[in-house]
Amino acid sequence: MSAAISYLRRRTVWRSLHTYRVWVGRAIGWWSILYLIFWLVVFALSGAEMVTTLAQPLPLSVPYIGTLLVALLFLGLLTSGRAPAVVLDRRDLFRAALAPSVPWDVIRYRVNLRRTLVAVGAAVAGGLWSFIAPHYFHVQAPWAAPAAALVAVAYFDSGWLRYAGHRRTDPVGRAARTAALGIVSVFVVTSVIAAWLGYVDGIPANVASFAIIAPLAALTEASPLVLIVPALLAIAANTAVRRSLLERFPPRFAAQSLVLTQLQAMRTFQVLAGIAGVRGGQEADAGERARLLAALHDRPGATRPTRSLRPPGLDQPAWRAIAWRTASELYRRPRFAQARALLLTISAATALLAAAQVMSAPAPTAPTGPVLDGVGAAAASPTTFAGTFAGALGVLLAAFLTARAGAGLVGPGLVRSGLPISASDRSRGRTTPALLVFAVATLVAVPLLSLVRSATGGAMPDPSTLLMTLMAYAGLLLTCLVALEKYSSWSGAPATRWEPQVVAALLVALPMLVLVAFGAPSWVMPVQFFLLAVVWLIEV
Amino acid sequence: MAETSAILNVTDLTVRLGGVAIVEEVTFSLVAGDLNLLIGPNGAGKSTLLRALVGLLPSSGDVEIAGRYPASIEARNAYVFVPDEPALYEDLTLAEHTRFNALIYQRPESEEKALAWLETFGLTAKVDEFPGTHSRGMRQKLSLALALGLEMPLTLLDEPFNGLDVEAQELLAEGLSRHAKGGGAVLLTGHQRELESLLSARVMELREGQLKVKAPSQSGKR
Q: Model-level pTM?
């Protein structure tokens, strides 16, 4: 390490740790932490004592399958490499990375920190395996912890090598790509061979002993030789990482570091704000995050919109402006996001339509068979759930799904009382585009639900039943969207959070839940519309 | 045609972000002794251009610093870049910043020079303090002192006059002129018209991603 970086880390790291130690001591208290650790150890020891040795061991195919899954993870690395696993913060970037220093020196501390974290995590998992393997699989695996740590480090380093070689044609980039490919190939090939040797019966013992070449052979073998391959992989990956950073950072590293550290700071801020109970701001931050990521990948539409809706005329009412703003946000989303939102809306519309059918159907007046049988009524009519508590729960679930879909359609919130508009104008503006999307989704949902009914042997509804169902559907949908919008605006919680969605769903299902409990299911529809009127008239 | 003795050669530099060209096919060069002021309205792409020069933003076209690719160690040994917002270690004192700077650039003499600049800016009494407790202007002064103390062949400064008091602005203008006279090349950005009179610099104007070169100002203090 260069003298400059050594000088920097000696001072800044220890001072940061000291500051952190003081902060934790004041904010939480070290005695409290020790107390928690003590009880965690006690619980862990108690749990360990409860583990008993199985009379019949579990099949060894379990660790082999586990090894193959890890091999799949390594294979997955070949499709990655667009973003770095480690970034430099702004200070290191401007003060150290732009200076004539060796890049490896600058980034070494952060890489080693991440390596340590992944190694410790993997070692804990490996240690757990070492403990349970003799009890559950009847094999000794004392080296599982170090082997898992070495494999985790090799995996992490291979990820960096994929990034360092991504779309590079210079010798350093090619070498990094080749090294990553080599490590992944060795891991996958040796894992597959070892799994085959261990899994197939009838292989001579001297041949089967070659299973030790697997990087995760430590899961089933007790010999220390199992560490050779993971150690070689880790050393090879480590060396290749260092070589990839002797002259310069990968081409987009600096730019990506600037953006990714901003995102990291935003996430940290959001977490801290959440801990402190500060609400709001998440929607704006999510937009900023998406914009930064899109700019990072030079994605069209990140800086200048690729499509726009015609704004309403200046003589139009205020709610039209809000509706235009909400619709523009939907319209400017990437196509994939639009398709996802539409699919969710169609699912929600179908579920809500089914719920409306249950709600609008006449409740059975008397059981058609013995109550304990519980079959007679169910077989007699598809509207069996009408007027039942199970039907009310169905309405609740469908309403929650509708609220989830609606949350993605009502657009970003408006600052409460920050604009000279009425609450009803705001609600009207935000819910109108969502209602239009739901109208389109309903056109798909109606035949979809009919198909489901005919497939399950149900009869097609007559026109009057369909009309009643659609009326009930409209009541449920409007109540759900309006309640969602008003509650999120009133509470300041974004509609995309669980809280407004749960409140909206409960409110929608409330008439049926209550009236069924009081034995008056025929009143559900009128009360539902009365509730809609009340929710609409509340000026929040 | 790029000049062979130029410390900075930029040919057809284009920066595209989020599908929009921020800087488009910009070509210019700087030689030793050049003092260049890059002006333009907000959002013209001044900072983007400077960041692209040092590889902080992806770009197309050719950039050479001291005849080398900007990310190479040889090129990084020839320039210093000061961002618009000071990038300082909150847990290094001002004096420790000057030591670290001298070490990382392998220029031992720059420590004394940076301390001298801090003295010029009136920060001698603060050198043992952490910059986190200082004002934006004081942090900017430290950032500038570190860069000016290095006396690199090429100095790139993004909005260096922002946050400085009038006296510090004049001191900085004098320092930059002195550095250019001594053979260093300077490229700085700004959007105040007063800078044209404060600095006797060649003015380059960036507007809608396109670069236009104006004649050097004669009313400067140099």
A: 0.71
A29 lies in the same domain as A178? no
Q: With pLDDT > 70 as the criterion, what percentage of chain B qualifies?
A: 94
Which structural domain range is residue A3 located in?
1-50
Does the CB of B16 have a partner CB in chain A at under 8 Å?
yes
Which of B124, B151, B178 is the C-terminal boundary of a domain? B151
Q: Is B21 on the interface with A (CB under 8 A)?
A: no
Distance CA B87, CA A93 (A): 9
pLDDT at site B221: 43
**Residues B55, A16: C-beta atoms closer than 8 Å:** no
Domain that holds residue B137: 85-151
Helices (H), chain B: 46-53, 73-76, 94-104, 109-120, 136-150, 166-181, 194-198
The answer, yes or no, to whether residue B52 has pLDDT greater than 90, is yes
- Residue pLDDT, tens place only, A407-431: 999 988 876 556 778 889 999 999 9
Mutate to test the interface with B, among A248, A257, A260 (most CBs of B within 10 A): A248
Q: Which residues of B touch A99 (CB under 8 A)?
A: 76, 104-105
Same domain flag for B104 and B123: yes
Report the range of poorest mean pLDDT among A222-231, A302-311, A384-393, A487-496. A384-393
H/E stretch holding A342 reads: helix A335-360
Contact (CB, 8 A) for A70 and A191 = yes
Distance (Å) from the C-alpha of residue A288 to the closest C-alpha of chain B?
13
Q: Which of A48-52, A95-99, A346-350, A364-368 has the lowest mean pLDDT?
A: A364-368
Domains of chain B: total: 2
CA–CA separation, B187 vs B201, rounded Å?
9
CB nearest to B56's CB, from A102, A258, A298: A258
Closest CA–CA distance from residue A208 to any residue of chain B (Å): 51
A43 and A119 inside one domain: no
User: Does A222 lie in the same domain as A79?
Assistant: yes
Q: What does the alpha-carbon distance between residue A404 and residue B51 come to, in Å, rounded to a whole number?
A: 42
Please give the order of strands across the beta sheet that includes B185-190. B79-82, B154-157, B185-190, B35-39, B202-207, B210-213
**Which one of B73, B104, B152 would you mutate to disrupt binding with A, by most A Cβ within 10 Å of its Cβ?**
B104
Same domain, B97 and B197: no
For strand B154-157 and strand B202-207, is the pairing parallel, antiparallel, or unpaired?
A: unpaired
pLDDT tens across A364-380, in order? 554 444 444 433 333 33
Domain assignment present for residue B183? The answer is: yes
Interface contact flag, A247 B19, Cβ < 8 Å: no
Residue A483 lies in a domain: yes
Question: Are residues A226 and A93 part of one domain?
Answer: yes
> A313, exposed or middle or buried, with CB in 10 Å at 0-12, 13-18, 19+?
exposed
Of B58, B71, B91, the CB nearest to A16: B91
Please state, for a pLDDT cut of 90, what percent of chain A lies above it. Answer: 53
Q: What does the block give as tokens for B48?
A: 């983007």
Answer yes or no: is pLDDT of B164 > 60: yes
Q: Into how many domains does chain A fold?
A: 3
**What's the rounded Cα separation, in Å, for the pair A352 and A435?**
14
Report the mean per-residue pLDDT for chain A: 86
- B72 and B117, same domain (yes or no): no
Higher pLDDT, A281 or B154: B154
Residue of chain A nearest B99, judged by CA positions = A4
Is residue B2 located within the same domain as residue B69?
Answer: yes
Q: What is the pLDDT of residues A84-106, one digit of tens each?
A: 989 999 999 999 999 999 999 99
**Within this chain, do residues A64 and A164 fall inside the same structural domain, yes or no?**
yes
Single residue among A16, A32, A50 that ends a domain in this structure? A50
Q: Which of A246, A279, A304 lies at the terminal end of a domain, its last residue? A: A246
Residue B159's pLDDT is what?
93
d(CA A133, CA A467): 63
